[in-house]
Amino acid sequence: MISPATFAIFLLAVLALFLSPGPNMAFVLSHGVAHGPRGGFAAALGISSADLVHTLFAATGVTALVAAWPPSFDLLRYAGALYLLWLAVQAVRSGGRLPAGTKAQPSAFARIVRMAFLNNLVNPKALLFFMVFLPQFVDPARGSVPLQLVQLGVMLSAAALAFNTLLGACSGQVGRWLQRRPGAEKLQRGLLALVMVGLAIRLLLLDRPSVPSTLSATPVQGS
Q1: Whose CB among 8, 37, 151, 177 lies 3.0–4.6 Å from 172's, allowing a Cys bridge?
Q2: CA triplet 79, 202, 136: central angle to 5 degrees?
């Protein structure tokens, strides 16, 4: 089991990382503005769900196997970039928002959760981040290493959900304010599409890092 002192240091480190602007933050903010607080929460839920999967991959050694095959980084980032570009096209074609004053329908909520989940899951930097960040807070003398990794990952995912939900709520209020303005729909669609294109370009421009160098790599919010 992880000591309370280690948990406290871990949470402080995670909070500092969350405050670093990055793709996940941009994804939550843009969907909060486009869909309101409920859309921001859906994005937060999808991101945290992917964090749990990344945790399981790191704890079971799947991430290490993926990292051991160099082409995997390129395959993941190309797939992620294509997916983000597809989301940008969908944002422009479908409107990318809900009518003013309406609540997100279950299907729309689930769609945003799915988009956020896949966007985080196919991010190769996030995959490698979990492999090199979580083990820094593991003490083999205190028991099972995989169990400690899972504990840390669950705590990180819960903290990310709380942080991103708050972020989505704040941006959602901005979205509601915009919905009352003429021409807001096009602005919200354009912003959402622009963010998705920007994230896709960022993925395409990423250099393939060596595993040791990711110890100082961009964190979850900035990964």
Answers
A1: 37
A2: 85
